Automatic annotation (TrEMBL):
It is a lipid-anchor. G proteins are composed of 3 units; alpha, beta and gamma. PANTHER family: GUANINE NUCLEOTIDE-BINDING PROTEIN GAMMA SUBUNIT. This is Guanine nucleotide-binding protein subunit gamma. One of its GO terms (molecular function) is G-protein beta-subunit binding. InterPro entries: G-protein_gamma, G-protein_gamma-like_dom, GGL_sf. It comes from Xiphophorus couchianus. Belongs to the G protein gamma family. Guanine nucleotide-binding proteins (G proteins) are involved as a modulator or transducer in various transmembrane signaling systems. The beta and gamma chains are required for the GTPase activity, for replacement of GDP by GTP, and for G protein-effector interaction. CDD domains: GGL (cd00068). It comes from the Eukaryota. Keywords: Cell membrane, Lipoprotein, Membrane, Transducer. The keyword Cytoplasm does not apply.
Amino acid sequence: MARDMSDKEILKMELEQLKKEVSTPRTAVSANCADTIAYVEGLLPNDPLIKGVPDDKNPYKGDKGGCSIT
């Protein structure tokens, strides 16, 4: 697509994109990190990767056999 456009058209598209980006609301990285940390820590008590899965709810636990490679 850009091959078919002149340099002037490409620059015009870039300018339009920059105008859109400049009006995008921004927040500090530290504020975003703090929000992310709070969100993750809020979910921590229910996280099965941290807490583990109870044996009665674990479909992979038990004597279902296994895989043997011969």
